[in-house]
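Minutes, project huddle
Topic: does the predicted pose make sense with flavin-adenine dinucleotide bound?
PN asked that the exact inputs be recorded in the minutes so nobody has to dig through chat later. Recorded below.
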Amino acid sequence: MTSLRQRREPPAFRLLEVKRTEVVSPYMQRVILGGSALEGFMLDGPAASIRVLLPTQGELAIPVWAGNEFLNRDGSRPIIRTLTPRRLVAQMQELHVDVVLHEEGVASSWARSAQSGSPVAISGPGRAYTIDPDADAFVLVGDESAIPAICQLLEYLPTVPITVHIAARHDDAVVDLHRDVAKTWHVTSDRSTADEQLIAAISRIDLGSHMRFWAAGEAATMQRIRKYLFAERSFPRSQAVVRGYWKRDR
Ligand SMILES: Cc1cc2nc3c(=O)[nH]c(=O)nc-3n(C[C@H](O)[C@H](O)[C@H](O)COP(=O)(O)OP(=O)(O)OC[C@H]3O[C@@H](n4cnc5c(N)ncnc54)[C@H](O)[C@@H]3O)c2cc1C
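Predicted holo structure (tokens), as shared on screen:
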């Protein structure tokens, strides 16, 4: 007998529309979502997540929770992507998301050409990062998909030493992090070189006992980082959050 795993139903979708877009860099587009359905939506910390339901041929049909995932009424899978709720401007009823423009991908194409007034819906937010008040230093690591979360973490983290390492495809993907911290951009168009550079950079960090480590990016890269941190450096798992944000070729 097969039993399907049931998961708690996520918050209901809020129907919004695209208000406008802004260029963050040639490799990242900000999409500003708005609408009265943002009433009551709250962000209580950095690096949370939202599910973003994107239109199919301009139409948006709100899917239903099928116990384990959202499905359209005809059983097909809706177009849903996870993004960081980068900024909430409650008085303007606006929510900003910053989307990586990569070669392929529905969210990427949507962000590139989103038209004002076009429908979109969000569910969330998912849990934000909990900042440990005992932490005496932070290390933040990621690829371009983690830039929105890293920028947000930098807005929330206390005044302690912070080291940031970000892998980016091109010099033009480098953005202002708006905080004076020790930061290194590992710029290379070759992903395996980027992985090597991130691991090498982490290997040079003196991981103190009250340090906290946060990383997000491509799943296999994050798996390597987990293995390195926990197996080779014996860094306590309880002091690290390492999240796969996307999977290569998926
Ligand atoms: C908690 C969380 C927060 C996230 N926050 C953000 C965010 O704020 N901004 C953001 O842009 N992404 C963010 N992501 C990652 C985002 O959900 C994925 O990158 C997603 O796959 C993008 O959807 P897509 O439709 O563009 O590409 P998909 O249709 O999902 O994928 C199509 C192809 O593109 C590749 N691909 C997917 N993402 C990338 C990428 N970033 N770089 C290069 N190739 C890629 C895939 O491997 C696949 O081959 C977050 C993910 C999580 C889990």
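Observations noted during the meeting:
- The pocket of flavin-adenine dinucleotide is lined by residues 49, 81-84, 98-100, 102, 104-108, 144-145, 148, 245-250 (CB under 6 Å).
- The chain has four helices and 14 strands.
No decisions taken; revisit at the next huddle.
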